[in-house]
């Protein structure tokens, strides 16, 4: 599947990119997004993102959970980044809270927000 732009702003729910699916282009949504396939482009949502696949591009979301897979790109996470079991994380991270349980290759700089501001 090759698309330049997905806009899912009119629905309330979840966007699911299944294993075996490749999205080339940016995803903009108000919904939660789960990636089990591959996204080559930016992901921007006011909801949460779960990665269980591969992304190459920036991610901006309320919360990000990396269950497995790889991320290459800047991560701007409003609340919490939770890395459960990632193969590779590469890119600058900006978040309030980060937890790392397992990651075989972690190449990132981390900046946390001051919640008192």
What order do the helices and strands come in, and which of them pair?
Layout: E1 5-7, E2 14-17, E3 22-24, E4 26-29, E5 32-35, E6 38-40, E7 43-45, E8 48-56, E9 59-72, E10 75-83, E11 88-90, E12 93-95, E13 97-100, E14 106-107, E15 110-112
Parallel strand pairs: 1-4, 2-5, 3-6, 4-7, 5-8, 6-8, 7-9, 8-9, 9-10, 9-11, 10-12, 10-13, 11-14, 12-15
In short:
The protein has 117 residues and is mostly beta strands.
Q: Give the uncertain stretches in residue-range form.
A: 1-5, 7-11
What share of residues are in beta strands? over 45%
How many strand elements? Answer: 15
Q: H/E element string?
A: EEEEEEEEEEEEEEE
Give the structural class. Answer: mainly beta
Shape: globular
**Main β sheet profile:** 15 strands, parallel
Query: What gap, in angstroms, lies between the N and C termini?
Result: 43 Å
Labels describing this entry:
117 residues, 15-stranded parallel beta sheet, globular, 15 strands, mainly beta, 0% helix, single chain
Structure description:
The chain has 117 residues and is mainly β. The protein has strands at residues 5-7, 14-17, 22-24, 26-29, 32-35, 38-40, 43-45, 48-56, 59-72, 75-83, 88-90, 93-95, 97-100, 106-107, 110-112. The chain has a 15-stranded parallel β-sheet that branches. The protein is globular, with a radius of gyration of 13 Å. The chain starts with a strand and ends in a 5-residue tail after the last strand.
């Amino acid at each position: 599947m090759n698309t330049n732009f997905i806009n899912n702003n009119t629905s309330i729910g979840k966007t699911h990119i299944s294993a075996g699916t490749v999205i080339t282009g940016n995803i903009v949504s108000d919904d939660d997004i789960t990636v089990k396939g591959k996204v080559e482009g930016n992901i921007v949502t006011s909801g949460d993102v779960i990665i269980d696949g591969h992304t190459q591009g920036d991610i901006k979301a309320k919360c990000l959970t990396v269950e497995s897979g790889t991320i290459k790109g800047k991560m701007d996470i409003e609340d919490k980044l939770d890395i459960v079991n990632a193969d590779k994380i590469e890119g600058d991270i900006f978040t309030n809270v980060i937890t790392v349980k397992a990651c075989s290759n972690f190449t990132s700089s981390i900046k946390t927000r001051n919640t008192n501001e």
